[in-house]
Each structure stands twice: as structure tokens, then as C-alpha cells.
Amino acid sequence: FRGAFALKSYQEPVLVSSTDSVGTKLKVAFKVGRHDTVGFDIVSHCGNDIVVQGAEPLFFLDYIGISKVEPAAIEGIVTGLAAGCREIGCALIGGEIAELSDIYTLGEYDLVGTIVGAVEKADVITGEKITPGDQLIGLGSAGLHTNGFSLVRRILFDRCGYDVDTYIPDLSATVGEALLVSHKSYVRSILELRKVCEIKGIAHITGGGLPANVLRILPDGCLADIRKRTWEIPPIFPFLQAKGDVEETEMYRVFNMGVGMVVVLAPDTVDAALASLNASGESTFLIGEVVAGEKGVQGVGS
């Protein structure tokens, strides 16, 4: 099986790709018996991973490895995949379902996605133009997204003994509802922002949190000074920290802590950028700036 895609006209196209999995968030989906959110998750995650370089998503392919094909589960997964692709404007051109009873536990599966996008060579966002004085804009997350679920499961299921149907007043949701909130897509917002101003760098805040992901985009001589308490932290994070007795440095290393993406901009473009992002429906926060110093990230437990 294969998919074909007709590439629209580019002067000097650079193809940008990403492959990732939903990870152990799937274990929560199995417990809840709901499968439509994880498809959306993987498309959003992969789409965010390529838009950080300015790439417009073109097409997506999925892989589902499962012990025994369960039509209802597959329907839910594909429904989520299709919704995710519509959200970011890319084509779902194919995939693979592998029935592997010797590998996967009955009733469980793995979900992996691959996305390919394109950007003009002159417009690739690399981070190399970042300089001291540039500002850091944080885009609010929807919650956990798709990272840190091994720790989450240990805290809530093993340590606290909660079930997915346990209602948590602090979260105004059941455990299952709180954990299956979809990974937010920033693709359309970033592509609109690119029309308004030059983006010097973007970090998608996934595994490794703010310290590791912001570090990746910094050139030598640049230190990202992130100021805590300049953005709204969703209640799921302090709840997990309290229930798991987790050190703050570990929280910032494992989770996004309410910032799903960081955009680096020159100071004179910040107002226009905030207007664009807010018009796209994003929650935006000025969370810090780039200062001169040894390459690194400070202020968030790094």
C-alpha cells in the first residue's frame, strides 16, 4: 500500500518530516475505552513538530499495531486521525494496520504517525537568528498533551488508587476526562503568524519540558531567561505535583506546565505577533527574554 501526493508549486521547497507515537497515554485510552482522542493527539503532535521550522503540513500516514482488529477501536482511531488532519489542513493519504497477536496484549494497540510538510528554503525557521533582547512568547497548552503519562499513571492509578471514572472536584472532571484532553495543535496559528512577522525560533514543548526544548533552538551565546508565574498553569499540574509529591524541577522537566509552544521574536514585532496569535484563539503570555550568556535555559528548574 502506498499514498501519492501532488506537491503544489514551490520555488525551492524543503520537505520537513516527523514521526512519533502517542506513547503511554494510550494506556489511559484503553482504561476509558475511548479511542477517538488519540488519533487527534498524534496528528497534532507531529504537525507541531514540523511547523516549528515553518513547514506547512502536506500529508500524514499512520501505523496501528494491534493484537486483534477491533472495528470499534479502529473506527475511533481513524475518526480522530481524520479530525486532526482537517484541523491542520493536511491529507490523510494512507496507513497500515498490523494484526500482531504475538506482540501486543489483547485489547491494546500502538499508534504511530508520520507527517511530511514543506517550506520555502528561504523561510526555514532554524533559530540561528536569535539574539539577546529577543522576547519569548508562550502559547497556552490544553493540559498534559502527550507527555509524562508514565509518571501520571504511577501517581494517579498506582499511588492514589484512582479509577478513570473517579471524579476530581479540583479538576471538574473524571480522571479519564482530564487525562484524555487532546494535544493542542498550533499549526494554523503559527502559519498565520508567519505572514505577520519574522519568527526567529519556535520550540514545541514536549518531552523534556521547557528546559530541554527551548535549549534546542538557541544559538551559542544566548541564554533563555524564563520567568515563572507569568502564565496560567492548568490545574492538572499542581494537582499531580501535590498527589505525587513531585519536585518542582521534575515537574518542569517532564511536563509542559501550561506552555505548549514557545515563539522567539524581535522586540519590535511582539505587539503584531500577539494580535495575530490572539486572533487565532491562542492564550499568549510574555514568559521571558533572551539574554547574553552561556547557551542554556534558566528560571524553570534547568
Short précis:
This protein is of the alpha+beta class and 302 residues long. The chain is built from ten helices and twelve strands.
Distance between the termini: 45 Å
Order of helices and strands: EHHEHEEEHEEHHEHEHHEHEE
Strand order of the largest sheet: 8-10-5-11-9-12
Oligomer: single chain
The total of beta strands comes to 12
- Count of individual helical segments: 10
Shape: globular
**Poorly predicted spans:** none
Structural class based on helices, strands and sheet pairing: alpha+beta
Rg of Cα set = 20 Å
Mean pLDDT: 96
DSSP strand (E) fraction? 25-35%
* Major sheet details: 6 strands, mixed
Helix content: 25-40%
GO molecular function, one term: phosphoribosylformylglycinamidine cyclo-ligase activity
Domain PurM-like C-terminal: 132-296
Main location: cytoplasm
Family: Belongs to the AIR synthase family.
Task: Provide a descriptive summary of the structure in words.
One of its GO terms (cellular component) is cytosol. This protein is α+β, with helices and mostly antiparallel strands and 302 residues long. 33% of the residues lie in helices and 26% in strands. It is built from ten helices and twelve strands. The strands form three sheets. Strands 8-10-5-11-9-12 form a six-stranded mixed beta sheet, with helices on both faces. A four-stranded mixed beta sheet has the order 1-4-2-3, with helices on one face. Strand 6 and strand 7 (173-174) form a beta hairpin. Helix 7 packs across helix 9 (248-254). The mean pLDDT is 96.
